[in-house]
Design brief:
3-stranded mixed beta sheet; 12% strand
Amino acid sequence: MTASTRLSDATAAVVRPTSSGIVHLGVGAFHRAHQAAFTYEAALLTGETNWGITGFTQRSNTVVEQLAPQDGLFTLVQKGTEQSTATVVGSMLDVRNAAADPGAVVEAIADPATHIVTLTVTEKGYRLDPASGRLRLDDAEIVADLSGRPPRTVVGQLAAGLARRMGVEAPLTVLCCDNLPSNGRVLSELVHAFVDARGSNDGLAEWITRRVTFPSSMVDRIVPATTEDDRADNERRTGLRDDALVVCEPFRQWVIEDDFAGPRPAWERVGVQFVEDVEPWETMKLRVLNATHSVLAYLGILRGHETIAEAVADSVLDEICRTMVVRDIAPTATVEIDAVGYGDEVRARFANPALKHTTRQVAMDGSQKLGPRLLGTVRDATAAGGSTDMLALAVAAWCAFVLDETKAGRALDDPLSAQLTGAGSASDLLAVESIFGPDLGASSPFGTQVVAWTDFLRTDSLSEWKRVLV
């Protein structure tokens, strides 16, 4: 065996499923480190061979180019602070590019052998208005899908696939795994909005209500971008080249609303929690973990930190994050979960230096993330008469990041980049109602706090942040 031999069925003795029961939209590193790994481990325990995954990438063809020559196999490297482990995952049976072959994804969703569709397309992939949570019916791609072209948006793909399934009366579970509050309900509403906008009286909306479920779920695992050093290290260790290698932390969590329209893998055998209501878990994760992640990313970039581990090791940033949880977030918690303790655990996970999760990777798509991660907490805290001081600092960090990136002439990785780069101040950014709604603009009490914090971040030393607090 030479060092250039590629990982594949021919070079790795891996147990493989014989058929696909799951279609996944948005095949990226997170899906492979999370849902694909859970599914593979469950199949190994039960001996079930019908839970292979047919995956579709929505944009780049890179994942197809990585996985296809490897028969869908990839190595999952879990990097702990003291040791790492590596396993080959064999749950991916097929990976295709939905943009190149939009008909294939519709056929896969419509196939009665498919029992579950899972999604990790990031917040922007749903083409919803961040402030209202509604489908953007004026979005150019949604308009094009509604015109009858082979669908290219995930909502259009789901609607077309479900229309086909209706003809054979095959129920389906559609399981959103993205960081959206009440993600199952939201996705159901998006699909129904698309179906209604078609203006067809074919009974699809009623059939979906009757035969399709959209359980909510909460997913958690840190999955940084794989580097060439990661791939080289694995090749030296195994003698096999793996272009689809995925790196992650040892910790993982998956909480799912127990509402399936048909069969599912025995995920509970490998640690998945099935619950009646996911909301306590998803709210805590979004408002503590994801909010802290974003703060570390934006303030970390402003302080010159390249990775999240470097940022959380910065005592100033670590104290800001803990103060935000204690002062602003924990008082809004409506369930008996220790938000402060959870926040401390989260920052300990972020400190893992082996992960090298970059601040810029976390900072992308901020316009889509502010609502579920920060602004929902702002509204709850405001309604209760609580503090929003640190939440305002968090939003100001995003404002300062956007303004600095624009001033430096760097392109924003954000679906609203054209609108954001036209802003010259924090007040301009707060005027974007699709992000902040009509209630959190520059003239609102919270907006006034954000403007003041943004001015502070751009003119003063962050080490002096405590003097701004009342």
